[in-house]
Structures are given as C-alpha cells and as structure tokens.
Amino acid sequence: MRYLILPVFFLFFLSCSLSEIFTKIKVEVPESGYTKIDLVLEDLVFIKAKVNGVDGLFLFDNGFTNCALNTEFAEKCNLKFTGKRTVNDANNQKTTFKDGEIQVLTIGDFVFKNPTFHEINTKNFLPCFPFDGVIGGNVIKQVNWRLNFENKKIEIQELPFVSDGIVWPITTNSNNSSFVKFNWNEEEVDVHVDFGKQGEISFNLEQFRNNIKGYPADLVVGITSLSATGLGKADTNYNIPGAKLNFSVNQNKVMPFDEVSFEKGLKREGRIGVGYFKKYNQVVLNSIKNQIVLNGFNPTTDDDSFKSYGLGIYLIEGEFKLIQIQPNNPNFQQLNLMDKVEEINNKPTRRFKTICDYKNFVKEIKATQVPLIVKFENIPNYLEFRFQQPYLEPIK
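Above: the chain's sequence. Below: its structure in token form.
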C-alpha cells in the first residue's frame, strides 16, 4: 500500500469552530494504483463499500459535502457520533446533523481512513430503495473515477485516467462542491456537478427568467424534490424541451438535454445531475486534474420517456396529498396543492400502507398507459389524467 494524505475543509457548514472544519483523510493505495467495482444504477449511482469491515450499499454523491450513514448502519460499524453541525441541505433548508469519523472506509482495493461522516435517514432520499449511506465529496475528491454506464462498472485510480472524449474543466471549492462553466447566450453560468441529482439539469428561475420568455414550457407548481430533510418546499418550475436551448463548455457544444428545468429558489446558478451523465457510455471524473471527460453520447429516442400523468401525489402524515399541479392544464383548474386523494382507479388510498405501495400500483398502471381516474376529497366528481406529452405554453 502507498499513502496519500490530503487536507479537506468543510466550509459548507453554517456553525462550527475552526478546529472542527479541518481534517485529513489518509488514502491507502493498492500497489497497482487501480481497482474496479460494480456500479448499481437505480436512477442514481450506488456502489458497494465497507465501513470498519461491514458491507454496505452507498449513494455516490459528490454533491454531498461529506460521507453520511444511517443510524442503524453506523451502530453496526461501532461508530460513535462526536459532534453536531448545522447545514443547508440541497433544498436550502437548515438542519442539524450528528457527525463523527469513520476509522476505515474500503472501496474496492482503496482504503480511506478518518473521513468525516454525518447521521442521516436515507428513507428521506429514496423511501423505496434501501441503502446504508452516502459516499460524499470528501472521499470522491481524493482519487479519480471512471463510470461505465454501459457495463455498470466503476474504475478507481490514483493517477488521472487517460480517456478520449469531450473534456469539461471543473473547479472544486472548499466544501467539496464541483462546478463547470456553461456558456449560454454569451453568458458564463456556474453549474454545480451533482451526481446525487436524479434529473438532467436545472437553472435558477429568478436569475434567468428573461432568457426564457416566450419559450414553450411545462409549468409545474409544488414540491419537486427530496433531500436529507425530506420533502422540499413548494415552488414554481418551468420545464423546457432541451433541444430548444443551446449550451457550450470549453468551446464544445453540450449534447442536448431531454428537458431543462428552471426552478424558483434554486441555491445555485445551475445544477447538472446523473440523469444527463448516464446518457453517455462512459464518464470520467478526474478529481486530481479537475476535469470531467464524456464519451459515447446516446440521445433519447423513445418519445414515451417524455410522457407523464402530470400530477404528483405523496404520503404526508398518513394521508395521500397532491404535491404538484400544472396550473395551465385544464385538468387542474379545480385543484389546489395538498388536496387529499381518496381513490385512484377504484382503489381507496387507505389501502396503500406506504408510499412504496402507491408507487408500485401506479407503475403497473403506467406500463399499460391507461388513464388515472382520481377522486379528491373536496371534489364530488372523478377526474381523469391521461398519460401524455407535457402540456406546453409560452413563458410570459
């Protein structure tokens, strides 16, 4: 084994002393300087790793400042929480996490010693997909990664990968967040590179509203995100077909997005997620050279991938509530956010014990593309929602 010792600063936190924000991660590198592991793809990227010798499944998320573990998994690993920190989550909401240090984190043949971790409830992120924690930016920035979405493998290397493809220069700030500069209409935009984001790309609506006036868009009002604290706040979003907008990075045209979102209250200028990166056969994250290399773009050809029922329903305090509406869609004229849902396609919602039961039920209906017939508590008649292309109107 060879050893790398790199300083990591955690300035993402809102309240901590100077002695708490500086730590060192020691990396034990295999003699080959290389290892390969499986990539588990479930909308997001997951990898298998060991914490103090205990096997677990972890979200690969460079948008998360540090590593994070479920309380139950941390107990299995005999880890103790030694402090607390107040942070802003991905939805820009303040929350307090317990934290501590992992003695030994093993990923393939690489060993990372003493990375900071936080206590989280992973069910807040993905309630229907069990996993044990997050491999965060404090570890990801230590080495180089090559994600092969075609073969579902991740390679890890001490030295940067030499790879053909489109090169995006990135910068990484003191709280381990990485950014790429997009050029759009002769304007530079700092876009946060976030492998923990499911969608393709989002921009700050307040900042860029004048840029998109007149574009046809799907207007969505409501809650559209989950983070470490659970559901985000209700806000206004516009979703524009990606082919309508042109971007470049480092004088290279950015291959088209399926959809570009403009979100009110987004705490970054822009944010690009794994929904875009997995359209490539291979993505290299050369942390040491501060670059991303993209190879083998596969454009979306299935028109059905753009279709939806147009409404969002979620389980809140034991009741299924409407959390997303489309104000421009005539189907939603009678509806308001947080209306209670009583019945879907002749099945009372009280029969769904969990949000996962509901999601599985809707997944089966979606496979047949038959309409959703929904009964709301405050509306006497049933409403029909068809599985169809987005309802687009020009942005005013």
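The chain has three domains: 2-157, 166-304, 307-387.
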